[in-house]
Each structure stands twice: as structure tokens, then as C-alpha cells.
Amino acid sequence: MPAFSGNAKAIGSPNAPITMEVFGDFECPACRSFFEGTVKQVIDDYVVPGKVYLVHHDFPLDIHPYARQAARLANAAAQLGNFEAMERALYDKQDEWSTKGNIDEVMATSFPPAQMKKFVDYEAAHINEINASIERDRALGFRET
């Protein structure tokens, strides 16, 4: 199992002329709306053709009780090369998991059992590194300019 490293929560080429950084909370309805209405189009129109490098930063809000859990699973998926698919699934199925926190169960409807097991096992094995990464992202979001 690979060690936790780098920013695997990025989509596109790091050599793209523009880097766009997005802060998101997977449990936040406004973040889902932004993802659905803007980020998906940016990916299709600018990331895919190599014009933009899109970097996701986790910003779980304290008012969302399951946001950190979702961010941890997304980080695990990212380290295993599946961030984009997990991000889409978390936002697509937000209404299903955000009320009860049954994220693994709901995400298991989007990924094969063996793949979900890898995500969950990776998360458990690297929980400290993942939590630290989430806190670094949050600190970036609070940084004053």
C-alpha cells in the first residue's frame, strides 16, 4: 500500500498555464452547487484540454458533522488515484449520506467492493497523515492575504 504523499487531490496537468485552487466541504450544499454548476464545466472546458490545473483543498465546516469523514475518504481515494471519481460521487450522493453519516455504505454503491475496501483500509492505515493534510488545507483557507 503506497504511503500518503503530495497533493493527489488535483486534476489535470501541473504544467497547465493556470492553477485554480478550490476549497470545498463535501457536506455543504453550496459547495455541491458550485461543483455541479461550475467545477464540472471547468474540468470539461479547461482542465481536460490542459489549460487549467485544478487543485482541491478540504475545508470541512464545523457545522457539518460528517464533512471530515467525507474528506478523509476522499483523501484516501485520492492517494489511490481515484479522487475525481470520489469527489463526484460524494457530491452526487450528498443527500443520501449527509443525514446519517453512512458515507462508506453510500459510496459502496458507486465503487466495486474491492475498491471500497482499499479506500477504507488506506484511510485507517494513514488516518494521522490524512487528518494533518485536512488541517493544512483548512489553514490555507483561513490564511489572511
Describe this protein's structure.
By secondary structure, the protein is mainly alpha-helical. 55% of the residues lie in helices and 11% in strands. The protein contains seven helices and three strands, in the order E-E-H-E-H-H-H-H-H-H. The chain has helices at 29-47, 67-79, 83-92, 94-97, 103-107, 113-125, 127-142; strands spanning 10-11, 18-24, 52-58. The chain has a three-stranded mixed sheet with strand order 1-3-2, sandwiched between helices. Helix 1 (29-47) links the parallel strand 2 and strand 3 (52-58). Helix 2 (67-79) packs antiparallel against helix 3 (83-92) and helix 2 crosses helix 7. It is globular, with a radius of gyration of 14 Å. The mean pLDDT is 93.
In brief, what are we looking at here?
This protein is mainly alpha-helical. Helices cover 55% and strands 11% of the residues.
